[in-house]
## 1
Amino acid sequence: MMKKRFGSRHIGALLLLLILALIPVIIRNTYIQTIFILIFYTASASLAWSVLGGLTGQLSLGHAAFMGLGAYTSTLLLVNANLSPWLSIPIAFVFVGLICMLLLSPCFVLHGPYFTLVTIAFSYAFLNLFTNWDYAGKGQGIVLPFGAEDFALMRFKSKTSYFYIALCMMVLFYIVLRLIDRSKLGYGLKTVREDEGTANAIGISPLKYKMIATFISAGMIAVCGVFYANYFRFIDPEIMAESQAIEYVLPAIIGGIGSVTGPLIGAFIIVPLSQYLNAALSSVVSGANLVVYAVILIAVVMFQPTGIMGWYQNSKLKKKLSGFFDNLDRKLGFDKSQNA
Amino acid sequence: MATLLELNNISKSFKGLKAVNDVSFSVEEKSITGIIGSNGAGKTTLFNMISGVFPPTEGTVIYKGKDLASVKPYQYSSIGIARTFQIMKPLKHMTVMENVTSGALFGRRNIKSAKEAEEYALEILNFTGLYERRDVLPGSMGTPFKKRLEVARALATDPELLLLDEVMAGLNPTETDDAIELFRKINERGITILLIEHVMRAVANLCETVVVMHHGEKITEGTPEQVMNDPYVIEIYLGKEDETDG
C-alpha cells in the first residue's frame, strides 16, 4: 500500500470539516445544533470504544460505566475542589484508564461473549456503587453548579460553544485512532484481535496489548464523560447502565467494526435517525420508534454484518472515488512522481 | 556444527493420555531436520512444546544452551524461534502485506516504525513469492498461498530456528517442488529448519536427519535413507512382511 502524501483527499476532509464548523453560523436553530452535538459526542464515544472493541476485538458493554466514571471524576473535582473541567480532562483520562485497566486485567483470559458478560457485570457494579454512595450524590445524582458563562469552568449559555468543543473532541479522537491504526501499536492490537496463538508466535503478548487498549479506550471515553457532565450539567448513576453502552457500540457496528471511519459514519446515520424516529413516531404509538430502530439494526446485522465500511471497501463507489481523487491529485500537481 | 536445540526426555500428558513419551533428540545448527510419523503420533504436540504453546510435563527443552521452561509464549520469537501452524492461522481481516508486516514489527527484529517494517515485509514477500498478492485478504487465496503466508509471517520475525508444521500437506507435486525450493533458500540464509511432514518425497529431498515417531515415542533417527530402510519403520508404515505374504 502506497502511503498517500498530502493531496486532494486531505483537502476533501478539510472541506468537510469546514462545512461542519460553519453549521452554527448558518443554522441558528438550536434543535439542529443539539442534534449535531449529540452526533459528535456519540461519534467520539464510539471511536473510544472501538480502540478496545474494534481494533482489539474485545467487545465491551461496560463503556457507559467508564464514561460515567469520567463524568463523576470531573464533576466531583468541580463541586468539591472547584477544579476546572479542562484540567480534569487529563486527570479523568489517566485515572479512569488505569482503574479500568487494572480491573479488567484478570478478565483478559476470557474470550468472546464471556469477556462481554464480565464488562456488563462491571457496569452494574459501578451503577450500584454510585447509587448508594453518599459522597457521589447517591441515586439522585449531582447537579453541576449554575452561574454566569465561564470559559474556565466549561460553562456556556449558548449551544454553539459546546458544538465546537464536541467537534474538536471528535476530530481529535479520529486523528488519534488513525495514528494508532497505522502504528506498531495498531498492528499489535489487530493481531491480537485476529488470533492470539499467532500473536504469541510472532512475539506479541496478548495480555499486554489488551491492557494498553483498555487504558486508551477507557481513558478516551472518560474524556467523553467530562464533556457529557459539563454539557448536560446533571449526572446520575443511570448514565452507567449497559443499555447506555449500546448507544456507543451501535455506531461502530453500523459503520463497520474494526474500521476507523466506521464509528464516525455510524454516528452520523444513527443519531439523526433515532432523533427523527423519536419525533415522528413516538407520538403516534409510544415505542414505535424503538421498533423501527430495532428492525433497521437487525437488517444491518443480518445482511451487512461488516457494516457500511465493510461494504464500501469492496464497492464500486470506492473505486470511483479513489479514481476521482487520484485524478484530482494529478491535476492539482500533488502527484507523487511530480513531487519527487 | 553446534547443537541449536536439544530435547531431553520430554513427555506430555493430557489428563490420562500420554501424547508424547520420553522423546530426546537434538537439532544441529543450520540443518534441516524432519519429523515423520502417522496421525496422532504426537508430532504437533512436540512442536507445541518446542514453541512454548504449553510446557512439557517432564523433561527439558534446551535452546542455545538455555532451558526454555521459564520463557513466556510470546518471548519465543525474540530469542529466534518461529513457527507455522498446521491449521493455518492467517490474520483474516488483514491483507497479506499486513500479516507479514506484523511479523516484522515484533519478533527478533522488533522494528519500531511501521514504514520500515513494511519495507522489510516487501522483501520477505518477494522472497516467498507472495509479492503480487500483497494487497489481498488471506481468505481469497488458495491453500498453497495460505501456507506460504504462514511461512512468510514466521520468516518476517527473523528466526534462527523455523518450525514448519505440515506446510506441504495438500499441495500438488509442482507446488511441493516450489515449496522444497523455498525451504532450501531459507536454509541457505542460515536458518535452521525443523519440519513435520507426511510428504516423503519432500522429507527425503530436504532433510539431513529424520526422526520417526509412533504412538508418542521416538522409534528411530537417521538419514532419510537409513530411516526408510529400517525394518520397524517399514513395519509401521506398510505392515509386517510375512503378514502380507501369508
## 2
Amino acid sequence: MHGGHGRLSIWFFIGLLLTVYGVLILGSGLYELWVPPAHPAVLANLHAGIWWGAILLIIGLIYFIRFYPRKQ
Amino acid sequence: MPSALALLFLQTSEKILSLSPVDLLVIALYFVVVLGIGFYLKRYTKTGEDFFLAGRDMSSWVAGLSFVAANLGALELMGWAASAYQYGILAAHWYWIGAIPAMLFLGIVMMPFYYISRTHSVPGYLKLRFGEPARALSAISFGFMTVLMSGINMYSMALVMEIILGWDIHFSIWVSSITVAVYVFLGGLLSAIFNEVLQFFLIWLGALVVSILGLIEAGGWNGMVHRIAERWPGQDYTHMWKDLGSFASNPMGINWLGIVLGLGFVISFGYWTTDFLVVQRVLSAKDLRSAEMAPVIGAAFKMAVPLIVILPGLLGLAVLPEHLVGEAQAGHGLHSYNEVLPLMLARYCGPGLLGLGITALIAGFMSGMAGNVSAFATVWTYDIYRALIRRDADDQHYVSVGRWCTVLGVLVSIGTAYLVMQFASIMDYVQALFSFFIAPLFGTVILGMLWKRATPAAGFWGLLVGTFSSIGMWAWVKLDPGALRYIALSPHAKDMAENMYRALWSWVICVVVTVAVSMATRPKPDHELVGLVYGATKMPYEASVPLIHRPAFWAIVVALVLVIVNLIFA
C-alpha cells in the first residue's frame, strides 16, 4: 500500500517504529520478570512494560502489515 | 563526535531520571527514523507545491493529525501538565472552550475561503483580500512571532532535558534543532507532516501509560478527587466553571467572561484560524472536503489531549509525596510545577517505557519546532522574499530559498532560545505574544472573509492599530501595574486574565478601526472578491453527499461532546 505519488505511506513508518518499540519494551518488561530491578517503579507488580509493549507490538504489526509496500 | 557524546552524558546530581541502555536505544531509534523520513521524502519534494504545501495531496486524517500535532509542542506537554498541577482542571479550558469551537469554525466556515482562493499562506490570503500592505505587515509579524515561538520550544526542551536527565542544555538545543533543520530542509512540509503524525502517535503512547497507571494508583477518578480534597483542603482543583464567578475565587485570577470571550473567542479563534503554523497543515489537504474535515478530526483528538496532559497534572496533586512549587522557589530538593510530568514518568515507568516517555517529550518538542520552521520558510519565501525582494524567479529558485530559509529559521530560533533564557515565565511570555499579533489578525481575517464592505486600506490600518494597541497595553501594565484594573477590569486579575483581556481589547480596536476606515474608503468591486468573501463566493453544494461524509455533521457531533464534557466537569 502506497501513499500519494507512489511513495511509502506514513502509516507504514508508524507501524515499523511501533513494532520495533513493542519488541524492545516487551523484551525489557520480560527481562524485569527474571531480574527484578533494585529500585522498582510504583505499581511495578502490574508489569506495565509487558502489556504496554505488547499493545505497541500489536498496533505496530497491524499498521506495518496493512501498509507494507507491495507491487501493484 | 566524542565531545558531543561526552556532553550527552554530562549529568548533574539533581537529575530526576536515569536512563537505561534500552531507553537510550528507544530515543536513538526515534532520531534515526525521523531523519530517515526526511532523506526518503527529499525525492518527492521537487516543486514549490511539494515543498511548501506537501503536494496538496494529504488525506483528511493525515492533515487533521498533523494539525493537532504541530500544536503539541513543548508548552502543551510540560506547560499544561504544570498548569493542571498549579490551577487544577481549570487548565482544561485551553483544550476545550479554548480550542474546539475555533477549530470547528475553521473547518466549516473559514476553510472554504482559504482553500478555494488557492493561497499558499494566511498572509497570502490577506494579499488577495486586502492587498500588499496588509500581507507585508502580517508576514513580518508572523515571521517574528514564529522564530520566537521556535526558540521557546527549543529552550523549553533543553531545560527539561537538563533538569530531568542532566543533559547539557546547549547540547540539547543544537542536536534537536539540527535534526529538525535536516528533515525539514530535505522534505519541506511533507517531511514535517509525516514526522508530526508519527510524533502524534508517540506522544499518545508515551504519555497515556502515565495516566492509566496514575488512575489505578489513585483509585480511579473518584479516588483521585477524594485524595486531592484530602491533601489540599479548602482548594477546588476539580471543577471547571464553579469558581469562575469572580477574579478572586479561583487560583488563576480570571472570571468566566475572560475565559469565554478572551480565551474562547479571541485568543482561541485567533490562534486556530489564522496562525499559519496550524492552518498550513490543513491547506495541504487533497480537496476541499478533506480540508474542511481535517480541523474537525483535529478537534476530536484535541478534546482528548487533556487525558495525557491535564490528567497527569491532577494525578500529581493526588499521588506525588512532595508538594511542587513555583520556579522561583525550586531547587535544593524542591521540584517545580514544570517537573510534574517527568516526575510522574519516573514514578511509573521502568526501562523501555521510560525511554518511550522521554521520546514522547522530545517528539512533542520537535513537532512544535518543525511546525514553526516550516511555516516560517513558507511565509518568508512567498510573502516576504517573492513579494518584496524578487518577484520573477522560477519555481526551483523559490524551493531553494525555502530550503535555506529553513536553516536560517533554525539559526535565528537558536539565537532566540538563548535570549529566552532570561525570561522567568515562558508561558506568560507566549500569551503576551499571542495577544500582540494573533488577536488583531483574527479581527482582520474574519472581517475580510465575512464582510464584503471591508476595504484594502481598512484591512491594513485595522491590523496595524490593533497590534500596536496590544503592545501599548502590555507596556502600560509593565510600567504601571495599577493599570491592570483598567485592562482586565479588576485589580485582582492575574497574568492570565491580563492576557485574555488585552487580546479582547486589541481585537475590538482592530474591528472598530477596520469598520470605521471601511466606511470612509472605497471597497473592492464584487468580481474581485470571488473566492475570498462570503456572499461573493459560490459555496460547494453538498446535498448529494451522505450525512456521514459531511464535515458539518461531524462538527455538530464534536460540539455536542464538548458541551457534555463541560457539563460533566462543571
